[in-house]
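Give me the 3D structure for F-box/kelch-repeat protein SKIP4.
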Amino acid sequence: MELLERYFNFMVQQQKLCADLKFFVPLRCYFTYEALDGKIYAIGGLGSKSSNPQSCDTYDPLTDSWSSSIDPNIPPDIEDSVVLDGKIYVRCGFSAVSSHVYAVVYDPSNGTWQHVDADMACGWRGPAVVINGVLYVLDQTSGIRLMKWREDIREWVAVTRLSPLLMRPPCRLVAIGKKVFVIGKGLGTVVFDVENAANMDGVLVSSSVPRLISDDDEISWDNVISCKSLAI
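Predicted structure for F-box/kelch-repeat protein SKIP4 (232 residues):
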């Protein structure tokens, strides 16, 4: 609750700072955001005031303005999102009992939301990134495996398995160029080139960043709630 209050206080200050620029910052949490075709999309989430969790706000820097829309296909419990093939894919939480994964896709060309095909959605069981038009997912349901979606055969295939010795799950993913950053508890991080990982047999060549050390010289085990890079 304290972190949530701090987040809202920060967003209120940001909105005050942006008021002179006629820039509206939607106050919300538990949402996702993506950049596509020079615009920023803030999707779903809960606001500090009464708001619809199935809303999508779009910022256009050319007009310096926000527009809003509501669609019942937007999942209320958003877990992750990526931009792939000019569309925004959004995944919600999955049930540990049924193992069912639910995902939707937004097509900006016609402004519609649709369900993602089951064969693709079923393997999206963790944080995801897109590199060179390929979707990669960090599957942490049984060990830590980097998976990728093969559109040509409509299947998920394993790229490499990662050791939990350098980073402790639950982990987050960030992609910069062709490099993948796997960030675990306490910000313990492993970095590797995804193309090299796909072509390596056996040992994965990577670099790592150790976990944070607290003021008491103890290793931090704090979870990383979210980690995402965005550019327009």
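The chain has a mean pLDDT of 79. Let me know if you want a second pass.
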